[in-house]
Design goal:
By secondary structure, the protein is of the alpha+beta class. It contains two helices and two strands.
Length: 82
């Protein structure tokens, strides 16, 4: 079951998932990126994408509102802050 978050508000022209320049994406480090690097396992992304879990662009050229870092990356970042 997906986590419950407060409903966000966005400007009318907001797009929740976009293509970005190669290397400018965080999808590569996202905990929802599928093993084949072409799919997103995040439930809300799949709903938004009409039930399809495929990324709309290559993982290193794609950003979405549903990004969450892999747990080990969060731990590494916290250790560096100490």
């Amino acid at each position: 079951m997906a986590k419950k978050h407060p409903k966000p508000t966005f400007p009318d022209d907001h797009v929740p998932a976009i293509k970005v320049p190669k290397g400018g994406s965080s999808c590569t480090t996202c905990k929802y990126l599928g093993d084949d690097k072409t799919r997103c396992k995040e439930e809300n992304y799949i709903k938004w994408n009409n039930g399809d879990d495929h990324l709309l662009h290559p993982h290193d050229e794609f950003c979405s509102d549903w990004y969450e870092p892999k747990k080990n990356l969060v731990q590494i970042a916290l250790m560096k802050m100490r």
